[in-house]
């Protein structure tokens, strides 16, 4: 089933989007209790990249004593490889024993750096961006938000996801949002099933794109990344996706300054939209929007095949 | 509103139905005025209201039942805050007023109440409704009035996809536009759309009638346009007047759609199987 939510404050307004997205996702907990993910967009510092990565799955941490040593070794390997390619780490933060947040400066080929880090066994980059911070872990929104200290995160827009695992495992790798590797600041959440997943995946893999999971939702992120790479604007890429991707789906995409939604031609997956002059809120159920706007507001369902994009 | 003589006034009983429709019109005679033996005696002049902001779904539904049990015939629920499954399973005559929006499955499986919702409703509103009226002042989600069997279901705003899918009776009125697959597998009843209709309107409909005032993206399989008769116009005028609604380009310019009855099941099934289909 899964629940997705998105919000954007227009005109450069910032807000405590960490708390707002936590409330929205907590209201959607019944749509998927397996894992929760956030893609939060802050202001960012010029020239500084934010790297979120994990060196193990949460489940692995219960597998024995050796994993604690491996986690330390993998993190050291990440540090070494970053220094090797000339990245200057300016700030490090340990969100959990197996998940980290780095600030770094780097003037070289970002894709090469990312590939080099992910080449380390067990290491997966969750996101790289100047404003994007992508956090996902097992548990409900309140648990993940507390664990990673998301309340009080100030930014302009966010997307989030509560997952009911249907097509792949219950682990962080298969949790949303997906970062559109190797592009800065692009992330995707999705509710639905894609039926031409393998055909499209093989095609994208032949063109050099990497897939970290067997989750069909990752395909949307990779597809959008591919279209942007070929020169499409976000909205154009999303419009094309409606015809190319087969199945039932509603998905949200965020970039450093935009938030977009797309709905399949059958209109088979829910999405409720609220838009005012200063704010746009979207969610699988209206209760999520009401969790941050308890007063009476006008909401509606976007129609089948509809694509909308808003700027921060 | 909803007087048993109204359908006679609209001329419904003069309509000559063709094909193998089994539609029966509601009779004003006493024996047809069915009420459930366990339904509560309520007084419409006895009113009550409560705030549902901090109440759970079951709590709210039980509170409505308790109020009906104590004879309250007019109940107002404030701040429902888009919670799911509110006002479901009411088999009683009662005036119920929701001041706010409902989530999914609102007012499903009802038989008899008159419900007004000042906000929006989510997916599957009034699903399987048997009788009564439900009026939504704002927008409705997808599957609005799925499989309803009777009563009037009115949305003054726009509704999502698959409105009236599997409709088996009653009337659905949408003041705005509707999404794709509206009237899909419709079996009986009437649908009035005052805005535009999405793709595949009336796809695979068995019976029933759809009236559209706006643009139609395209018709579904076996959905055909038929002549709008004076009887239709009388019916539409009467029905829209009831809810103070108007067709944007006038009733004369509305399009009437029915089943072409050319699908395989009309020719290839034995009579006993045909009963199962409907």
Fold and architecture overview:
The complex is a heterodimer of chains A (312) and B (278). Chain A is of the alpha+beta class and 312 residues long. Chain A folds into two domains: 3-43 and 133-311, 4-Layer Sandwich (Glutamine Phosphoribosylpyrophosphate, subunit 1, domain 1), CATH 3.60.20; 46-130, Ribosomal protein S6/Translation elongation factor EF1B (Alpha-Beta Plaits, 2-Layer Sandwich). Helices cover 28% and strands 31% of the residues of chain A. Chain A has eight helices and 17 strands. Chain A has helices at residues 17-27, 66-84, 110-118, 141-148, 197-206, 216-229, 234-244, 286-290; strands spanning 3-9, 15-16, 35-41, 49-54, 88-94, 99-105, 124-129, 132-138, 154-155, 157-163, 178-179, 187-194, 247-254, 258-263, 272-275, 279-283, 307-311. In chain A, a hairpin with a 7-residue loop joins strand 11 and strand 12 (187-194). In chain A, helix 5 crosses helix 6 and helix 6 crosses helix 7 (234-244). The longest helix of chain A has 19 residues, at 66-84. Chain A is globular, with a radius of gyration of 18 Å. Chain A starts with a strand and ends with a strand. Chain B folds into two domains: 35-138; 142-278, no CATH class. Chain B contains five helices and eleven strands; from the N terminus they run H-E-H-E-E-E-E-E-E-E-E-E-H-E-H-H. Chain B has helices spanning 6-9, 57-69, 230-242, 264-268, 271-277, and strands at residues 43-51, 72-78, 95-99, 111-117, 131-136, 152-155, 168-174, 188-193, 209-212, 223-226, 255-259. An eleven-stranded mixed β-sheet of chain B has the order 1-2-3-4-5-6-7-8-9-11-10, covered by helices on one side. The longest helix of chain B has 13 residues, at 57-69. Chain B starts with 5 loop residues before the first helix and ends with a helix. The mean pLDDT of chain B is 89.
């Amino acid at each position: 089933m899964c629940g997705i939510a998105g919000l954007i404050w227009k005109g450069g307004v910032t807000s405590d989007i960490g708390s707002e997205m936590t409330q929205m996702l907590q209201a959607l907990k019944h749509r998927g209790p397996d894992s929760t993910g956030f893609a939060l967009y802050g202001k960012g510092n010029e020239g500084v990249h934010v790297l979120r990565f994990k060196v193990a799955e949460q489940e692995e941490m219960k597998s024995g004593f050796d994993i604690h040593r491996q986690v330390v070794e993998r993190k050291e390997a990440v540090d070494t490889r970053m220094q090797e390619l000339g990245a200057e780490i300016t700030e490090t933060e340990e969100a959990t024993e197996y998940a980290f947040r780095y600030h770094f400066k780097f003037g070289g080929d970002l894709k090469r750096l990312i590939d080099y880090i992910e080449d380390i066994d067990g290491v997966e980059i969750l996101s790289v961006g100047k404003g994007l911070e992508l956090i996902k872990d097992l548990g409900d929104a309140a648990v993940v938000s507390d664990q990673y200290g998301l309340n009080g995160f100030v930014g302009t827009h966010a997307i989030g996801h509560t997952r009911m695992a249907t097509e792949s495992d219950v682990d962080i790798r298969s949790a949303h949002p997906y970062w559109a590797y190797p592009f800065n600041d692009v992330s995707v959440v999705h509710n639905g099933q894609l039926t031409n997943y393998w055909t499209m995946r093989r095609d994208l893999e032949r063109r050099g794109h990497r897939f970290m999971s067997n989750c069909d939702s990752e395909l949307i992120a990779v597809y959008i990344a591919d279209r942007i790479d070929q020169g499409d604007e976000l909205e154009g890429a999303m419009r094309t996706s409606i015809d190319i991707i087969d199945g039932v789906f509603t998905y949200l995409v965020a970039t450093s300054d935009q938030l977009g939604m797309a709905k399949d031609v059958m209109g088979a997956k829910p999405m409720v939209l609220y838009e005012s002059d200063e704010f746009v809120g979207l969610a699988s159920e209206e209760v999520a929007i009401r969790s941050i706007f308890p007063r009476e507001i006008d909401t509606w369902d976007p129609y089948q095949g509809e694509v909308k994009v808003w700027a921060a | 509103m909803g007087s048993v003589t109204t359908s006679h006034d609209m001329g419904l009983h003069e309509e000559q139905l063709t094909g193998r429709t089994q539609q029966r019109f509601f009779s004003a005679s006493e024996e047809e005025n069915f009420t459930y033996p366990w339904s509560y005696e309520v007084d419409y002049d006895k009113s009550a209201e409560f705030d549902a902001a901090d109440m759970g779904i079951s709590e709210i539904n039980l509170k409505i039942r308790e109020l009906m049990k104590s004879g309250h015939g007019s109940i107002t629920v404030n701040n429902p805050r888009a919670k799911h499954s509110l006002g479901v399973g009411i088999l009683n005559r009662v005036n119920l007023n929701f001041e706010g929006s409902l989530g999914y499955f609102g007012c499903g499986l009802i038989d008899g109440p008159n419900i007004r919702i000042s906000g929006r409703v989510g997916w599957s509103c009034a699903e399987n409704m048997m009788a009564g009226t439900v009026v939504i002042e704002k927008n409705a989600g997808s599957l609005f009035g799925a499989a309803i069997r009777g009563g009037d279901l009115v949305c003054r705003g726009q509704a999502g996809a698959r409105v009236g899918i599997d409709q088996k009776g009653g009337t659905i009125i949408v003041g705005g536009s509707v999404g794709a697959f509206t009237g899909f597998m419709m079996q009986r009843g009437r649908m009035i759309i005052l805005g535009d209709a999405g793709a595949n309107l009336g796809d695979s409909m068995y019976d029933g009638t759809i009236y559209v005032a706006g643009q139609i993206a395209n018709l579904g399989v076996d959905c055909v346009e038929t002549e709008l008769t004076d009887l239709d116009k009388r019916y539409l005028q009467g029905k829209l007047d009831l809810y103070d609604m108007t067709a944007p380009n006038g009733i004369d310019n509305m399009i009437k759609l029915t089943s072409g009855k050319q699908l395989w099941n009309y020719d290839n099934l034995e009579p006993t199987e045909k009963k199962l289909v409907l």
